[in-house]
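Readers of this paper often ask what the protein records in our data store actually look like. The remainder of this section carries one protein's record, kept here as part of the documentation.

:::
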Amino acid sequence: QMTTVFVVALSMTSLANTFVFSNMTSLVIIVSKSLMGLPVLMLEASGSMIGIAGGIICSRDSSSGPSDDGGNEHPQAMLGNLIALSASFGTALYLSIARDLRSKCDLYVFMFGIFFIASFFVLAYMVIANEPVTFDRDPYSGLFGWM
């Protein structure tokens, strides 16, 4: 999920913004802990504030300059930043669920479920992006090309 969202966000905003926003998982976890009323340590809170301030600075930096063709890319850059940030929310959700679920099932069953779900995210991206997808063993476009 994170890699697919990273690629989509990268097509809309800069590499630096995509990297920063898609790796804010720890900040998302700390903010969600505080919103749920769970205790947050002072160093966690101060680190989160610094990280959030850095994210805001990166977001504003990408939309301040003109694009190569003289137009304003602000809506597309902000959308790319939000899409990259959604990768952090997805990863935080994954970590929260995996922490509880992993102790209740076998490792192979857990990993099969993770990769099974991830394959549907990649398939959905391929369909939305109009990538060639076939139901055969073609090594370039086939769903079973890995066989």
Summary: The radius of gyration is 19 Å. Residues 8 and 19 are 12 Å apart (CA to CA).
